Amino acid sequence: MADNKAKRGGADRALIALTEKYEVAYWSKKFKVTPAKLKYAVKKVGRSAKKVEEYIQLQKHRASDKSRIALSEAYEVRYWSKKFKITPARLKAAVDAAGHSAKKVEAYLAAQKAAKKAKKAVKKTAKKTVKRKKAA
After folding, report:
1. Nearest CA-CA partner of 100 in 80, 120, 119
2. Which of 98, 117, 118, 119 has its CA nearest to residue 109?
3. CB distance 64 to 70 below 8 Å
4. Running DSSP on this structure, what letter comes out for residue 101?
5. 3-state DSSP call for residue 33?
6. How far apart are CA 102 and CA 1, in angstroms?
7. pLDDT, tens only, 68-104
């Protein structure tokens, strides 16, 4: 059913009509989401603009929360320790050094691993050099 354009009251403004392209464009722009995400949110919580906005904000919060490491939560420490294949103590040290962002912690751990590998290669090369000098 098409939106009644003669009806301009608050009740009409509080509802999202997915059948009207201009309304989908307006609400998508207002909530800063794609039309597909808007349609999904409307199907999930109903046509109320207020409920849709709350749902979208919650989804954005959850998405940003997934990339943060909360050391105060034991289940998160277990999850990230297992994901990065390190001990909880090393995870806490990495978070202290790099911050709570999972990407930054991952980059920090990769840099540490690369530095350790380079140091090991230098030692190995030094041992070979010493052996050659002794043989000569």
Report:
1. 80
2. 98
3. no
4. B
5. coil
6. 47
7. 888 888 888 999 999 999 999 999 999 999 998 899 9
Angstrom distance (rounded) from CA 104 to CA 98: 6
d(C-alpha 37, C-alpha 18), whole Å? 12
Higher pLDDT, 19 or 7: 19
CA distance 126 to 131: 9
DSSP 3-state of 86: coil
Distances (CA, A) of 84 to 33, 35, 47, 76, 95: 32, 36, 42, 12, 12
Model's pTM, two decimal places? 0.50
Residue 102 and residue 124 in contact, taking contact as beta carbons nearer than 8 Å: no
Count of CB atoms within 10 A of residue 134's CB? 7
pLDDT tens column, 22-63 = 999 999 999 999 999 999 999 999 999 999 999 998 888 776
Please name the residues in contact with 91: beta carbons below 8 A apart, sequence gap of 6 or more: 69, 71, 77, 80, 81, 84, 105
